[in-house]
Write a structure and sequence with these properties.
Layout lengths: L6 H15 L10 H11 L2 E2 L3 H9 L7 E10 H8 L13 E11 L3 E10 L2 H22 L3 E8 L2 E9 L4 E9 L2 E9 L1 H14 L9
Parallel strand pairs: 1-2
Antiparallel strand pairs: 2-3, 3-4, 4-8, 5-6, 6-7, 7-8
């Protein structure tokens, strides 16, 4: 399992950027098919090729054109190509991921929200990724000090950890939700009001608690 220690560095990089920019499928109600349906209904642009998705998201910061969102729902090599080397979401990929949906929406000049739903080869693999994310959330909390709220919950066979935190220039809102072999990830930074507009709607549709409810 590849260790991911990038959330803090991403949050710091995002802070610098902003200082200058002024239903039950896939084993869980937040499975890849459910997130893909939400993204489609939202009006996001679908990428069917992993490399095209990677290029689209990597170079989207040149235009900031994420208002309608982009997404991919794929398996195998396509999901690897889409995620592994892509800024922000690369750390959420592991070779044990069998299927995933990635939905990115926002504005690179202000707010970016990334939602990932992925199914792993085993429950242990999913648990490992979840545990790593929780450790990263704890580091973010320590970094943000009093400007952070974080809590973990368990209900109906699902465990999840949520965090809201403020750094010097931006707000961060993260969530990790685990049930069996399926992991749903919320990773957003930017303007708190804009984040909540995106995240609250997604979480309501997938029937999970949003970080804003902490």
């Amino acid at each position: 399992m590849k260790k991911y220690r990038g959330i803090i560095s991403i949050a710091i990089v995002a802070s610098i950027v902003f200082s200058f920019a002024g239903c039950s499928l896939g084993g869980a109600k937040f499975g890849p098919s459910v997130l893909a349906k939400y993204a489609k209904d939202y009006g996001a642009d679908l990428y069917e090729d992993g490399e095209d998705f990677h290029d689209g998201v990597e170079y989207m910061d040149d235009t900031g054109d994420l208002e309608d969102g982009v997404y991919i729902h794929a398996e195998g090599d396509d999901i690897r190509d889409a995620m592994e080397q892509t800024f922000i979401i690369g750390g959420f990929y592991d070779s044990s991921v069998k299927e995933a949906t990635v939905f990115v929406v926002g504005d690179y000049g202000n707010t970016v929200c990334t939602f990932v739903s992925e199914v792993f080869e085993s429950e242990d693999d999913a648990q490992d990724m979840y545990d790593e994310l929780v450790e990263d959330f704890e580091e973010v909390k320590d970094y943000s000090g009093e400007d952070a709220e974080m809590d973990s919950f368990e209900e109906g066979g699902m465990v999840y950890t949520l965090i809201n935190a403020d750094s010097q220039y931006t707000h961060c809102s993260y969530g990790a939700y685990l049930k069996d072999d399926t992991l749903f990830i919320v990773f957003c930074y930017g303007d708190e009001r804009d984040i909540n507009n995106y995240v609250d709607d997604v979480c309501e549709a997938l029937d999970v608690m949003a970080p804003s409810e902490l």
